[in-house]
Amino acid sequence: MVQTTPFLRVQQVGKRFLVDGGSRAVVALAEVNLEIGQGEFVCLVGPSGCGKSTLLNIIAGLESPSAGQVLLGGGAIVEPGPDRLVVFQEAALFPWLTVIQNVEFGLWAQGLAKEKRRELARAFLRIVHLSHFEQALPHELSGGMKQRVAIARALAMKPKVLLMDEPFAALDAQTRDRLHEDLQSIWEATGQTILFVTHNVTEAVYLADRVVIFTAHPGRIKRQVTIPHPRPRQKQDPALAEIARRILADLREEVRQTERAELGLDEDEQDGDRWERVRKSLEELGYLESEEL
Questions:
Q1: From the centroid of its chain, how far is CA 6?
Q2: pTM greater than 0.70
Q3: Domain layout of the chain by residue ranges
Q4: What are the contacts of 17-20 at 24+ separation with CB within 8 A?
Q5: What pLDDT, in 10s, does the model give residues 246-286?
Q6: How much is the CA Rg of the chain, to the nearest whole Å?
Q7: SS (H, E, C) the chain
Q8: 136-145, 191-200, 211-220, 255-264: lowest mean pLDDT where?
Q9: Dihedral, CA atoms, 37, 43, 48, 52, nearest 10 degrees?
């Protein structure tokens, strides 16, 4: 299903943001290079603020890189387009439209005939197990059901790449597990190319063909981990748990280095010294009534 020839190319991408009224630049991404094959499922993980979502927005065409370029099928991405659709953490449904009207919306915008778009919308609602809710309004749905509608709406447009920015982060564990299974089945059935941002390492290892680990700010690719295990996968698989453990160790090291830099710890200072520095700074501010934390 997955083609080995790169389909999506991120080439030397960097991103800077001006802050403090434009007087200072913050580097969010630096020299990011990534290649994704058609039909591949790739997850991006990394510490908070490392630029994962920024990279997703650049690929979506919602932001422009400060350096480098992104190519899709050989053409440079310079603006948003229906060949790249984003599923966000919030479902972003139109509250005044029914479920099936929400799924049809993009097809309507493309000028597809009513009968054809209704047929496609119903097909994708069956895929996400919402056939019996096509006339419901968004406020009548649970959080997980809303995300299924958003996924169905995106898939109905047949994008070249489906971009997912922590789509299950706000859901309860039981709903999230079910959607993991659903997404795995959808990916296998459609061969959709998916780039998925998450903070959940277990989620990434369960879903992805490959996990891309980012360094702390500024975001660079630290390591890529191929997940060779066949599907369907079980989250309790000890082999998957070991891969997740190694990825978490990488992420903890990145977070630790960031914390040390913020606290101004020298290389030869112990991590325990940071709490002494925190205590002293609170004392200087008069926050502590005694010398004990």
A1: 20
A2: yes
A3: 87-158
A4: none
A5: 999 999 888 877 776 666 666 666 666 667 777 777 888 87
A6: 22
A7: CCCCCEEEEEEEEEEEEEECCCCEEEEEEEEEEEEEECCCEEEEECCCCCCHHHHHHHHHCCCCCCEEEEEECCEECCCCECCEEEECCCCCCCCCCCHHHHHHHHHHHCCCCHHHHHHHHHHHHHHCCCHHHCCCCHHHCCHHHHHHHHHHHHHHCCCCEEEEECCCCCCCHHHHHHHHHHHHHHHHHHCCEEEEECCCHHHHHHHCCEEEEECCCCECEEEEEECCCCCCCCCCCHHHHHHHHHHHHHHHHHHHHHHHHHHCCCCCCCCCHHHHHHHHHHHHCCCCCCCCC
A8: 255-264
A9: 20
CA distance linking residue 213 with residue 184, whole number of Å = 21
Residue 138: asked if its preceding bond is cis (omega within 30°), the reply is: no
Closest to 134 (Cα-Cα) out of 97, 171, 90: 97
C-beta of residue 204 within 8 angstroms of C-beta of residue 45: yes
Average pLDDT value for residue range 143-157: 93
Asked if pLDDT for residue 3 goes beyond 60, the answer is: no
Q: How confident is the model at residue 222 (pLDDT cuts 50, 70, 90)?
A: very high
Q: Output the pLDDT for position 18.
A: 85
